[in-house]
TrEMBL record:
Residues 8-118 form the Thiamine pyrophosphate enzyme N-terminal TPP-binding domain. It comes from the Bacteria. Catalyzes the thiamine diphosphate-dependent decarboxylation of 2-oxoglutarate and the subsequent addition of the resulting succinic semialdehyde-thiamine pyrophosphate anion to isochorismate to yield 2-succinyl-5-enolpyruvyl-6-hydroxy-3-cyclohexene-1-carboxylate (SEPHCHC). Keywords: Magnesium, Manganese, Menaquinone biosynthesis, Metal-binding, Thiamine pyrophosphate, Transferase. Coiled coil: none annotated. PANTHER family: 2-SUCCINYL-5-ENOLPYRUVYL-6-HYDROXY-3-CYCLOHEXENE-1-CARBOXYLATE SYNTHASE, PROTEIN PHYLLO, CHLOROPLASTIC. GO terms for biological process: menaquinone biosynthetic process. This is 2-succinyl-5-enolpyruvyl-6-hydroxy-3-cyclohexene-1-carboxylate synthase. It catalyses: isochorismate + 2-oxoglutarate + H(+) = 5-enolpyruvoyl-6-hydroxy-2-succinyl-cyclohex-3-ene-1-carboxylate + CO2. Pfam families: TPP_enzyme_C, TPP_enzyme_N. InterPro entries: MenaQ_synth_MenD (IPR004433), THDP-binding (IPR029061), Thiamin_PyroP_enz_TPP-bd_dom (IPR012001), TPP_enzyme_TPP-bd (IPR011766).
């Protein structure tokens, strides 16, 4: 059984031929032809998630892990507007997401019917490709069949080659539920355009060879990107200092893995921090988490910046010389042997290690707080897990601790929003074999609480919520903290707990609010794998910022 509507069949057949298997469907009526087609064909793996905002992030999580095209399907009207946060995240995180939105026929838009909005091009500049299909009720209409086939192929090819979201708007005229025994048409696949490739410019080699202070920043990367041999070669050059972020999934003994730990103690000492200024900056990966390194490199007017990678480049420091579109490992293999004498790497690795040697004394004396909790968590997390991190405070605290080489770390760093972190993590967890741990903040968790409203949470998934009763990130930022308006309109103080949500959605709930009880609560969380587990860790709202800021002062 499949839908009798020809242009719906075209989508189904082209998806099958291009290997688009995972379809996240939000229930509705106008999308019935495609829902019938997808769910009636064993080729497709379908998921039903009611909340479209959660559904799109769930699909994004699957695509994030599988590195293949994943589709979302919704009805008409406001449904596809709820996809927008995930669409923007997919756009900036370069994730291959297909949006299928059902629609009324064009002549029935803006005539006063419910759930009719202007759906074509609704995602504006946050979409790689947007198209609207022609309505076909007669399968012999070759002109419209060819037009639609071309449009669907272009959408899939853009999604494949440009690494981002595409939108296919699909108008349907009633009746919507008519079916036939099997497909009654065929489709042709258009070849994907060859990916644009950049030759490394000659001036790059000249600049690389003459620079005695080269800074390489590794941010969000989908592993694996580098081999140990790649990193050995890169760090063998004494003029190269490599900084890595937790979401880079890169571990090596010659990396500065805690960027803020190195920069924060000296950021207001103009004489000392000026010595860090590089002659040449190379970025590899997605958005950089560390605000301190971005501010520093803008403040000291980075001289030359190149971005390495096949996808998109950002002029983060306002000095982007070129985007070199080759694989990062291939770039390393093409690097010339550097003969310049330099102590750049040794000097700053030495300073970083000195700071690290002071950490244990400070961490041992601090009271129960966010920083103490992250220390305990990163010491307790098991090997061989997928670690999903929420945004704001969560990812920033995680940057202060060394990464376990057996972990793979992910975070929605495209738009860096708090919405969708839990939904993305659950979607990702359905697509990987090893256990998934999500660490997230309280506001992010409550904001995306409908993420738990589905039947796909793996039984061995662990969710850890750091509940400091508000938006703790705002206490770290400069500004007056003691006014009533700050508590209400910035920090958003609350007394909510996740217990009732766990009861409603069938998760086992654990909580802890002190260091002595942490080990027992964490053991309960980690030992039970027959039902999803949630550990809520309560920390004091008003001391976390002071302890974090004093950490950097202590290192200095």
């Amino acid at each position: 059984m499949t839908t009798s509507i020809p242009h719906a069949q075209q989508i189904l057949l082209l998806f099958k031929k291009r290997g688009v298997k995972h379809i996240v469907i939000s229930p509705g009526s106008r999308n019935a032809p495609l829902t019938i087609g997808f769910t009636s064909d064993d080729f497709f793996t379908c998921y039903s998630i009611v909340d479209e905002r959660c559904a799109a992030h769930f699909a994004l999580g699957i695509a994030q892990q599988l590195q293949e095209l994943v589709a979302c399907l919704c009805t008409s009207g406001s449904a596809l507007l709820n996809y927008y946060p995930a669409v923007a995240e997919a756009y900036y995180s370069e994730i291959q997401l297909i949006i299928l939105s059902a629609d009324r026929p064009p002549h029935k838009i803006d005539i006063g019917d419910g759930q009719t909005i202007q759906q074509k091009n609704v995602y504006g500049k946050h979409i790689i490709y947007d198209t609207q299909l022609e309505i076909i009720n007669d399968p012999s209409n070759q002109e419209h069949l060819v037009t639609n086939e071309r449009k669907i192929n272009r959408a899939l090819n853009n999604c494949l080659s440009k690494y981002g979201p595409v939108h296919i708007n699909v108008p349907f005229e009633e009746p919507l539920y008519n079916t036939i025994k099997d497909y009654n048409l065929d489709v042709k696949v258009m070849d994907v355009l060859k990916q644009e490739r950049t030759v490394i410019p000659d001036e790059f080699y000249e600049q690389w060879s003459s620079a005695s202070r080269k800074l390489v920043i590794l941010s969000t990367l989908n592993p694996p990107v580098f081999t140990k041999e790649d990193l050995d070669k890169l760090t063998a050059d004494p003029s190269v200092l490599v900084m890595s972020e937790v979401s880079s999934n890169v571990v090596h003994d010659k990396l500065v893995w805690g960027i803020d730990t190195l920069i924060a103690p000296i950021e207001f000492d103009d004489g000392e921090i000026a010595a860090l200024q590089p002659d040449l900056v190379i970025t590899i990966g997605g958005m950089i988490v560390s605000k301190k390194v971005k501010q520093y490199l803008r403040r000291f007017e980075t001289r030359i910046h190149y971005h390495i990678g096949r996808r998109r480049a950002y002029d983060t420091f306002f000095k982007l010389a070129a985007h070199i579109k080759i694989a990062p490992s291939e770039w390393i293999h093409k690097l010339p042997e550097n003969t310049i004498s330099s102590d750049y790497q040794q000097q700053w690795l030495g300073k970083f290690r000195t700071y690290l040697s002071k950490r244990p004394d400070y961490l041992a004396q601090i009271p129960w707080s966010d920083l103490k909790v992250f220390e305990l968590l990163f010491n307790a997390l098991p090997d061989d897990i997928t670690l999903q991190l929420g945004n704001s405070s969560t990812i920033r605290y995680a940057q202060l601790f060394p990464m376990n080489a057996s972990h793979t770390v992910f975070s929605n760093r495209g738009t860096s929003g708090i919405d969708g972190s839990t939904s993305t993590a659950i979607g990702a967890a359905t697509a990987v074999k090893n256990r998934t741990f999500l660490i997230t903040g309280d506001l992010s968790f409550f904001y995306d609480s409908n993420a738990l409203w589905n039947n796909y949470i793996p039984r061995d998934m662990k969710i850890i919520v750091i509940n400091n009763s508000g938006g703790g990130i705002f206490r770290i930022l400069p500004g007056e903290k003691n006014e009533d308006y700050f508590n209400t309109y910035f920090e958003t103080v609350h007394q909510l707990t996740a217990r009732q949500l766990c009861d409603m959605h069938g998760l086992d709930y654990h909580s802890v609010d002190n260091e002595l009880a942490f080990a027992k609560a964490y053991k309960s969380l980690s030992s039970c794998n027959n039902r999803p587990q949630l550990l809520e860790i309560f920390t004091p709202r008003t001391v976390n910022d002071e302890i974090l800021l004093k950490y950097f002062q202590y290192l200095k």
